[in-house]
Amino acid sequence: MKFFLKLIYLIIPPILFKIFKRKTYQYKFKFKTYREAKKVSRIYFDQNSIKKFFGPQDVQVTGRFNLVALLTLSLNKKYIQILDYGGGANPVYSYIENSTNIKTFTSVIETKAFNKIMKKKVPSKYKKFIKYYNSIADLRERHFDIVCFNSSIQYVEEYKNVIKNLIKYNPRYFLITRTNFHMGKKNYVVLETGISGSLHPYIIFSFSNLVNFMKEKKYKLVFSNKYNVNIYKHKTIDSNTFFHKDLIFKKI
Predict the structure, then answer these.
(1) Quick check: is 169 in a domain?
(2) Which residues contact 222 (CB under 8 A, 6 or more apart)?
(3) Residue 214: which of 154, 246, 242, 173 has the closest Cα?
(4) pLDDT level of residue 144 (50, 70, 90 thresholds)
(5) Coil, strand, or helix at residue 125?
(6) How far apart are CA 206 and CA 137, in angstroms?
(7) pLDDT level of residue 72 (50, 70, 90 thresholds)
(8) In a domain, 4, yes or no
(9) Mean model confidence pLDDT for the chain
(10) How many domains, the chain?
(11) Is the Cβ–Cβ distance between 194 and 26 less than 8 Å?
(12) Domain for residue 19, yes or no?
């Protein structure tokens, strides 16, 4: 069989493979609400995400992960409390220590199923600094200096309620990274297909909508960039109209 496949590749010009290659899309469909999208989706759980815990020696501090390190330095404090919402197996703690040698106290909120596995994989030398929680209600801390959504807020159905609850911890900064936005007035929800075996809701945020919401909550936008324009594809939505942003909001 392998011989015949190689023969086909030799006989048929490469340009024809490009012409007839099936297009792949990272996102499908479009919904007005998260609830509508959930009805036709499957549970988001990436099996690759639980294979290993990534400590400071395992990560590279590039791109968006520079932001949380620089914010930490700007605080000029000895004890820094960070909430990493959806931080996974590579929490911001690892990126901060890797690049600054600052040991922060980082609380990570993840799903119960994820935490059951990951808590056992965190090396003992980091357990003083990194704690995994199933929900905001489980948190033991009373204050956070920085709240991070590192490419995670787009999966949170009740994101406004989550932010409202986290504001009670009086953070100086909210950091939102690698999240899709568009310049329209309303959010919309699609299904993400990038993880094998999973088809789950993904919010593409209205930039103005989120900025105005944070302003109402007394947090001012102080940093905003834009990248990955026309990189990720949707079957019916022009990929030039949505893009990734990193945002920093500072308490007014």
Answers:
(1) yes
(2) 248, 249, 250
(3) 173
(4) very high
(5) helix
(6) 28
(7) very high
(8) no
(9) 89
(10) 1
(11) yes
(12) no
